[in-house]
Amino acid sequence: MDSNNALVVFEDKKIRRIWHNDEWYFSVVDMIAILTDSPNPNNYWKVLKHRENQLVTICNQLKLQSSDGKYYNTDCATTENAFRLIQSIPSPKAEPFKRWLAKVGYDRVKEIQDPELAQKRMKEIYKQKGYSDSWVEKRVRGIAIRDELTDEWDNRGIERGKEYSILTAEISKATFGMTPKEYKNYKGLKKENLRDHMTDLELIFTMLGEASTTKIARSKEAIGFIENKNAAKEGGNVAGIARKELENRIEDKVSTHENYLEKPESIKRLEKKEE
Questions:
Q1: Where are the domains of the chain?
Q2: Do 47 and 53 form a contact (C-beta atoms < 8 A)?
Q3: For a 10 Å CB count at each end of the chain, is N or C smaller?
């Protein structure tokens, strides 16, 4: 699943979530931070668990990404159990939060029944942010290719988190000569999603590297981290060779410092057409 889908927003505040056992699990600490406006939601949760021991039984420890970029075991609750948690927290935001939570859960059920709804929602979000139809189509296709790759890694014994990051870095380095972290620095990005600031060509070569890695891992029946790391390097090399060939022919670089921090992608696209 793409990182963008692992976050939802309530009143401009983000809540981490993860798809597990065919339903969403939401970060308990993130929900408490919103409901209580506590400066220390972790401490609030510790006190609440001590006061109401039964709350511990409605939570699952699942790995979520923290602000430092690493994944940690985090108390999470399903939509149903989140309602139970809300009842234990006196908050004027309880009712609007309940309505919001019910809608988030219902929308996901609809999207499971009709996956095209999820794609449609994603496209609308990107368009509202100022991306062109052409760019959005590539971005959405890239997400599908990434999902296919991570599903393959899951089936081949790769652990989410650190091992995912290492393999992704191998593909990127072979494709562009830069790891994702180096690429973000190259583009002047900080916490922003790198792929949301890629040009059409950068997205295309990213897709080629990841799709090639999936095919190679399957063809070689790669199992475990080492074999899949080799497949990642080979898949990235396929895209890297193609990139260099194109650069030789157009006498220009595919990788660019360009980002969409100040101007939306659709505006920059129009400006280039007018040049």
A1: 3-113, 131-274
A2: no
A3: C
